[in-house]
Design a protein that fits this description.
By secondary structure, the protein is α+β, with helices and mostly antiparallel strands. It is built from 5 helices and 8 strands, in the order βααββαββααβββ. The longest helix has 19 residues, at about 145-165.
Length: about 230
């Protein structure tokens, strides 16, 4: 099976006094403001200011109380390596001094594997849009299992990731999903979507700390391999 070699860069930032409401969205806003001319950082078209719906090459996460993570692949990795040492992050109009900044780079394997790999969601996974949410509710009302439905969506998330990485799978992508609802997640003032937590397996190598599904650029759907 053909595996793609990708450069992956992680930028870890330990900060002082991050707001309890700090989010991947706020972190993206900080870097997007710093690099307005690079769509990869803020995921908006510079001419129309509309959101770019491709799978993001730079993603933003708040890992715990005072640690932020920016992770990037391919072209995004080259850009992230050029970020200078930061004195602070500004999140929700509050300046948070950077106590420690660590940048790491590695070459990773990406693609279909002969054996399943097991993952857990570190951050809520958002698989449903307005259209397939209706279908999901219909299955639940009729007391039919939703696992197969969510499995198809997960495989679709992986295929979307493959497109932006320019990778064509030479074998069928399989998956098994074991998740549960955690309620609505407020993405925008008038937009809330259902979140899930749990784990899954798939015959596909996904980078650690990478996100899949909706709003992955803001940290949702972040995965970590299970040992």
């Amino acid at each position: 099976m053909r595996l793609l070699k990708l450069e992956k860069v992680e930028l870890w930032l330990e900060c002082e006094g991050m707001p309890s409401s700090a989010s991947g969205k706020a972190l993206r806003g900080f870097f997007g403001h710093l690099y307005r001319n690079r769509t990869e950082f803020h995921h908006h078209d510079n001419r129309s200011n509309r959101l770019v719906y491709n799978h993001p090459l730079i993603q933003y996460k708040i890992i715990d109380k005072n640690r932020a993570l920016v992770v990037a692949l391919k072209e995004g990795a080259y850009l992230l390596k050029a970020v200078p040492r930061l004195t602070h992050l500004e999140l929700y109009h509050k300046k948070c001094p950077v106590l420690e900044q660590e940048l790491s780079s590695e070459t990773i394997s990406f693609g279909v594997t002969p054996e399943p790999v097991y993952y857990q969601f570190l951050k809520p996974w958002i698989p449903l849009n307005e259209k397939n949410y209706v279908e999901y509710l219909r299955l639940k009302r009729n007391r039919k299992p939703t696992d197969t439905f969510l499995k198809k969506i997960l495989i679709g998330n992986i295929i979307s990731m493959c497109k932006i990485m320019r990778y064509t799978a030479d074998d069928k992508i399989e998956a098994d999903v074991r998740v549960e609802e955690i309620g609505k997640i407020h993405l925008k003032p008038n937009i809330s979507l259902l979140g899930f937590r749990g784990e899954f397996s798939t015959n596909f190598l996904i980078p650690d700390f990478w996100g899949i599904g909706k709003s992955s650029a803001r940290g949702y759907g972040t995965v970590l391999k299970r040992s």
